[in-house]
Design a protein that fits this description.
Layout lengths: L1 E8 L2 E6 L5 H13 L3 E3 L6 E4 H6 L4 H8 L1 E5 L1 H9 L9 H10 L15 H10 L4 E4 L7 H12 L5 E5 L5 H11 L7 E3 L4 H9 L4 E4 L1 H6 L1 H10 L5 E6 L11 H7 L7 E5 L10 H9 L10 H5 L3 E2 L12 E6 L4 H19 L6 H19 L5 H5 L14 H15 L3 E5 L3 H10 L6 E3 L9 H6 L4 H10 L5 E4 L1 H4 L9 E6 L6 H8 L14 E6 L4 H20 L8 E2 L1 H9 L13 H6 L5
Parallel strand pairs: 1-5, 6-11, 6-12, 7-9, 7-10, 8-9, 10-11, 13-18, 13-19, 14-16, 14-17, 15-16, 17-18
Antiparallel strand pairs: 1-2, 2-4, 3-4
């Protein structure tokens, strides 16, 4: 028998053997190398280093390896601790037991100042969440995911517990507010970790408060966070990912890589998302690897594997009014058709020499696909390319945007009926154009140029903050239009009490942003009699149709995985639309490199 010693250091497990020349040690290392994503061997000492996540995912085979290669594993205390933190054990609790613990922690007490209580849907969700040490909540926006997560925290917490929430920056206000409401103002508040990264290490050394961190920040301070969590190992840190689909790319993306490197520390974790698989089923794997690093999830079995671990309140459960979606054909003008065909021709030339091994060619093909989306949205978006000589001079003369014309006409019509509307576009230049065209309707906008308020005073007085603009749109009787960029405004905004109509000037392949943009005006609080409309102009026979089909396919996948047939909203015709109405940032395509050729092969000239 050989002794294999295991020691933990930050993100890695180091393995050394009492007999580095043993054949059993050689065979075991060979299996490790085949299995582990991270494998580093020191050939002088014979020692091996693997990642913590690789180690945890191999735990199920440890006894088999010990028997096969006659190994005695010897582990340090740190490894024993994080192994116990990641054991997956099911435990049933009654509603009485849940309420008793929540009452003890002061969570939504019967006499709370806000008169808030858990709904029956929330009680059902929380009882499922607390069955395991970690859980997922995929309820639709407005169903109370944040409250559910805080109830999970209250149930799992002890006197030393700390809460670490990773969320989009625009959701910070919601977390502050819900923490205050759920614990009636008697819980330690969050510390917002928004300071420059170079100061974070000193700040974390000097605080033991609950943390609220945005995803972008985590990428830059992963080591500091790791040190903070390790230092507070006795504090029972509970970690929550809000909008967890942001780590869908797993270790292939910077954000996913940073967050998954922390997943072995906390015993209790929660992921929250209304759109957990915006592209395909594989989007779920990294999110559940965060929850359960010692379990193996595969695309073929993911639906069955996750069923015990997630809950979802659907729009059907909330008894919301069924929205109507109108896909409306809009004709292109001649100059726009000429420009579209030119782009098609250039894509054809690029396709001849296209290679997935050439990053420059991949980038160029993505640019050309974005050109098509821009041309179909507003040809004037290509003015810069005309100035640079990428397209012929004068080709943009007369190439106006029929979709912007349509959106403006509909907004004016709705305003004449005293109805507010939300106009979505992925392009900053379109935001400015719509703002100028609709100036008589006193519009406001949210895109990447608009910041999140840092305090209550900014919310009320700073016109460049999201909160100020949302308040203007909701509460100013003469503000009839909000223009929004999905990348900046598709999350953490509720407009449904004053706005029931959304117009889409353009869409991309990003199904998550598209679905969440709809939820800004279709969410809990609406009456059954309220009429909600999604108005989607498109150019028939163009790339618009390919985007429609791709979004529908992605939504169908999510419906199937989540067993929720209320996500897809079938379109209605032009006539029914009129009958019914009368009664930031540059977008990213969200296309895998391998899909590019399939997509361009389906593009046809007009």
């Amino acid at each position: 028998m050989i002794d294999v010693n295991l020691k933990l250091s930050s993100q890695n497990v180091h393995l050394s053997c009492s007999d580095k020349f043993s054949n059993s040690w050689y065979q075991y290392k060979r299996d490790l190398k085949d299995y582990c994503k991270t494998y580093i061997e020191d050939y002088d000492s014979g020692n091996v280093t693997i990642s913590v996540n690789d180690y945890l995912s191999m735990q199920n085979y440890e006894d088999e390896f010990a028997s096969m290669y006659n190994i005695n594993f010897s582990k340090d205390n740190k490894i024993d601790r994080f192994e116990s933190n990641n054991i997956v054990v099911e435990q049933e609790y009654s509603l009485e037991e849940l309420n008793k613990k929540l009452h003890k922690e002061g969570f939504l007490l019967p006499n709370n100042s806000y008169k808030r209580s858990l709904t029956s849907n929330q009680e059902k969700n929380i009882l499922k969440m607390i069955k395991f040490s970690s859980a997922a909540n995929f309820s639709v926006p407005g169903a109370g995911k944040t409250t559910d997560a805080l109830a999970f925290y209250a149930f799992q917490k002890d006197t030393n517990s700390k809460l670490v929430v990773i969320a989009p920056k625009n959701a910070f206000d919601s977390w502050d507010r819900e923490l205050d409401i759920c614990f009636d103002g008697k819980h330690d508040s969050f510390f917002r970790l928004v300071t420059p990264s170079k100061y974070v290490k000193d700040i974390l050394k000097g605080t033991n408060r609950n943390l609220l961190i945005n995803y972008e920040k985590v990428r830059n301070i992963r080591e500091e966070l790791d040190e903070y969590i390790s230092r507070n190992k006795d504090s029972n840190i509970i970690m929550i990912l809000d909008e967890s689909h942001r780590i869908k790319h797993g270790t292939k993306g910077k954000t996913g890589r940073a967050i998954l490197a922390l997943n072995h520390h906390p015993k209790n974790k929660v992921i929250l998302s209304g759109t957990p698989c915006p592209n395909k089923t594989i989007d779920l794997i990294s999110q559940f690897q965060f929850l359960f690093p010692n379990k193996i999830f595969t695309e073929s079995s993911i639906k069955d594997d996750i069923e015990p671990h997630y809950c979802r309140t659907s729009k059907k459960d909330l008894d919301l009014p069924k929205p109507k979606r109108f896909e409306i054909e809009v004709d292109m003008n001649e100059a726009q058709v000429e420009l579209y065909n030119l782009a098609y021709h250039q894509i054809g030339l690029d396709k001849k020499n296209f290679s997935l091994n050439d990053k420059l060619k991949i980038l160029e093909m993505r640019k050309k696909i974005m050109w098509l989306i821009q041309i179909l949205s507003n040809p004037k978006l290509l003015l810069r390319h005309e100035h640079l000589g990428n397209i012929p001079k004068g080709i943009l003369d007369g190439a106006e945007s029929p979709k912007i014309d349509f959106a403006c006409n509909e907004a004016i019509k709705l305003a004449s009926e005293n109805k507010k509307c939300l106009i979505w576009t992925n392009f900053t230049q379109n935001v400015d154009t719509l703002q100028n065209r609709l100036i008589d309707l006193n519009p406001t906008f949210i895109d990447g140029r608009v910041k999140v308020a840092e305090d209550e005073d900014q919310k009320k007085t700073d016109i460049m903050t999201r909160e100020y603009r949302i308040n203007k749109f909701l509460n100013s009787d003469d503000c009839f239009v909000m223009i929004a960029n999905p990348a900046a405004a598709s999350e953490s905004i509720s407009l449904h009490m004053k706005c029931r109509h959304a117009i889409y000037v353009d869409k991309t392949y990003n199904a998550g942003q598209y679905l969440q943009s709809r939820d800004r005006i279709h969410r809990l609080g609406l009456k059954k009699s309220d009429k909600v409309s999604f108005i989607e102009p498109y150019h028939p026979g163009t790339f618009d149709e390919r985007i429609k089909d791709a979004l529908n396919d992605k939504i169908d996948i999510m419906e199937e995985i989540l067993n929720d047939n209320s996500i897809q909203v079938p379109p209605e015709g032009f006539n029914s639309y009129h009958d019914d109405i009368n009664t930031g940032n540059e977008p990213f395509l969200d296309i895998e490199d391998e899909q590019l050729l399939d997509i361009v092969n389906e593009i046809e000239p007009i």
